Amino acid sequence: MHALPQSTWSGDIHCVTTWSKLETSFEGVSVDLLLDAAGVQPEAAYVLATSTTGYTTNLPLDDVTGGKAWVVWSNEGRPLSPDHGGPVRLLVPHLYFWKSAKWVTRLTLLEHDRQGFWERNGYHDRGDPWSEQRYQGD
């Protein structure tokens, strides 16, 4: 993954518990580049991110392509610590941060949506902070 062209994302991140971190930066590789390198399946419409702990989160493919998501390994120029998802985590900054899975090991392309851990436990399937999509039904 480090052999692919790296990029830096800078901006704000938002947690479902109502905190935000302003003007932060992450370094990694865009999901667009990873999917291109892997050969995106044309029938895929969703991505399921899986971590070393078995944690999963679901995302529409549209929310991780078009320059909207990265697999990152550093924050503010320093390697991600294990507490913050190191060695690599997903970064989907336009959605609530539970969608940015820590310790990510796999991105699975799916034809149909499959809820992840928090979504099966009542959190919103998408998690748009600007629409306050915290829980199912929001």
Automatic annotation (TrEMBL):
One Pfam match: Oxidored_molyb
Domain Oxidoreductase molybdopterin-binding, chain residue ranges per copy: 2-118
Origin superkingdom: Bacteria
Coiled coil (residue ranges): none
Protein name: Oxidoreductase molybdopterin-binding domain-containing protein
Lineage: Bacteria, Bacillati, Actinomycetota, Actinomycetes, Kineosporiales
